[in-house]
Design a protein that fits this description.
Oligomer: single chain
Radius of gyration: 19 Å
CATH class: Alpha Beta
Number of strands: 16
Protein name: Glyoxalase family protein
Strand order of the largest sheet: 2-3-4-1-13-16-15-14
Pfam family, one: Glyoxalase
InterPro entries: Extradiol_RC_dioxygenase (IPR052537), Glyas_Bleomycin-R_OHBP_Dase (IPR029068), Glyas_Fos-R_dOase_dom (IPR004360), VOC_core (IPR037523)
Shape: globular
Largest sheet: 8 strands, mixed
CATH topology: 2,3-Dihydroxybiphenyl 1,2-Dioxygenase, domain 1
Distance between the termini: 42 Å
CATH superfamily: 2,3-Dihydroxybiphenyl 1,2-Dioxygenase, domain 1
């Protein structure tokens, strides 16, 4: 039982149309699945990724219309990274952000890699991270029909940053229950007076398998709104291994969902001691069970258990196109 890396991150948007415009037309990611939140079918759940939404490449969004702005703080996921092929790709993205008026920082070094921080229109905090010297989890393949440069495009998820008031309870879950190893630390990029950021990795390691923990005892707890990250998911090989993880999480007495069927993958949700929501998700079946590769994300996809309610679901949704 070893987690293979990061599977996906799921965040909140108040405007599905604007969200699709930014992630496809500006970032050049492929909308690989346009479906609904299975826990609230009146709103969209959008999946972006590499050419076929391979596990480890997916950024997803739940639409919550009229959601207030995120109130930033601790006990939260505060940075999502997207991998790019090398250092030169960061220069491409910096220029593209300036052309599209995207809020961004300067290219900087972080944990031995070059990164370019930026925010989407709703304040979702992200960064591109260079794979120039990465030798860990394999990257995905950018879509050849991307609206940005496929040669410089996002190849998957990089390190995810957690911000907590007290790091040790979260670190203990990562190491003692989830099998991560603590490999290094690095100075805080915004304030060297703050504690160093700690780096944990799993599986083959590298950019696609890292969690970074930031300690901020000076901040209040986050109040989630648009632009917030809802949860981070980690890769499990298959449903059999997921059942073993369910037993391990139950034995650790962590609040959890038990087995959840999502059709595109199977999941387990639980909260670590600082209240951040983690998910374990299987690598398959994937997104091509109900749509061919060539037409992923072009129409509303519903898992079989929601298909009988299609007409009612479609009637409540505002068209994105």
């Amino acid at each position: 039982m070893q987690l293979k890396g990061i599977h996906h991150v799921s965040s909140l948007t108040a405007d599905a149309r604007r969200n699709v415009d930014f992630y496809t037309n500006v970032l050049g990611m492929r909308l690989v699945k346009k479906t609904v939140n299975q826990d609230d079918t009146s709103v969209y759940h959008l999946f972006y990724g590499d050419e076929r939404g391979n596990p480890g490449t997916e950024v997803t969004f739940f639409e919550i219309p009229m959601a207030a702005s995120n109130k930033r703080g601790t006990n939260s996921i505060t940075k999502v990274s997207l991998r790019v092929p090398g250092d030169s790709a960061l220069e491409y993205w910096k220029q593209r952000f300036e052309e599209h008026s995207v809020q961004h920082g300067d290219i900087q070094k972080q944990a031995g890699r070059l990164v370019l921080p930026f925010e989407d229109p709703e304040g979702h905090r992200m960064q591109f991270v260079s794979d120039e010297h990465d030798q860990g989890v394999e990257p995905g393949t950018p879509w050849e029909h991307s609206n940005a440069s496929p040669a410089n495009g996002a190849t998957g998820l990089g390190p995810v940053r957690l911000t907590v008031k007290t790091a040790e309870p979260t670190a203990a879950v990562l190491k003692d229950i989830m099998g991560f190893s603590e490999i290094q630390s690095y100075p805080h990029p915004n304030d060297t007076d703050l504690p160093d950021i700690r780096v944990f990795e799993t599986g083959k390691g590298g950019s696609g398998a890292e969690i970074h923990i930031e300690t901020r005892s000076d901040l209040p707890a986050e109040r989630q709104g648009r632009g917030a990250v809802h949860h981070v998911a980690f890769r499990v090989e298959d449903a059999d291994e997921l059942q073993q993880w369910i037993e391990r999480i139950k034995n650790a007495r962590l609040p959890n969902s038990g087995f959840v069927e999502r059709y595109y993958f199977q999941s387990l949700y639980f909260r670590e001691p600082n209240g951040i929501l983690f998910e374990l998700a299987t690598d398959g079946p994937g997104f091509e069970g109900d749509e061919p590769f060539e037409h992923l994300g072009e129409s509303l996809a519903l898992p079989p258990f929601l298909e009988p309610s299609r007409s009612e679901i479609e009637a409540r949704l505002k068209p994105i196109d």
